[in-house]
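ARCHIVE CARD
Drawer: 12
Card no.: 0347
Subject: one protein chain, sequence and derived structure
Cross-reference: see card 0346
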Amino acid sequence: MRIAPDHALTLAAVVDEGTMEGAAVVLGISQPAVSQRIRALESLTGQVLLVRSRPVRATEAGEAVIRFARQLAHLERDAVAALGMGNATTPTSLPIAVNSDSLSTWMLPPLIELAERLPVTFDLHRDDQDFTERLLEQGIVVAAVTSRSDPIAGCRVVPLGSMRYTPIAATRFRDRWFADGVSNEALERAPLVDFDRRDDLQTRWLVARGIDPTKPPRHRVPASSDFADAIRMGLGWGQLLPFQMDEGIAAGRLHPLDDSHVEVPLYWQQWNMRSALLDEVAQAVLEHARAVLD
């Protein structure tokens, strides 16, 4: 079985645009031609590749074909550049998945440095570090910062270091809720701040202390900078990175609840193919991460 590249790229375009009509416009072909290519692919593979919803979405089998299409397009750009056939000033877009805390603290400096010297633009997709791997599996991104240490199918992985979180409270919050010390009884009553419903850092810390995590009231602030601001302003206690709290601790405005930490290892996963540009991006991210992470 041989998958026709133009058919695979058509499937990717349909998923990107959300409709066959949108893909037809982008590809410069008719809508019936788009439908015909998708039907031919499904006939060739013997599987349904698209869920015909609004917007359409790929099935698991469709994701494999889309991943092939995106890798093919990336390799073609590399080959054109190596042959000197393309416009050297036209940037290549690299879609990368990054967890929110990395994006708001340490990830941007290496990307800025790369963008200043290479013809590249970055299409960043933000998600929790436990879920960025899904974007790789779907073929949406070429690389991801993830908490998964084993390589995703078709990818290779290298460790970046660990994010070290500390349970922190603002002075006004500490004085109100922990005036008699950070006891388990006080922690059961004191409000905490979660990033969102998938954020389990506060829960993990409470469980490690033998506290029922369902007892404390919970705020949810789903943006990294606002999450840190909410803790600094006294909305509740929560886990922060050194980047987010060192100045506050030095100034006496923030206080660790104890000397414990929650470690979250991070890994860089990228498509397992030779690409000079992608490898250079990976090297820059890796070097910066190992300089600033634990």
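Annotation on reverse: The two ends are 47 Å apart (CA to CA). The chain has a mean pLDDT of 91.
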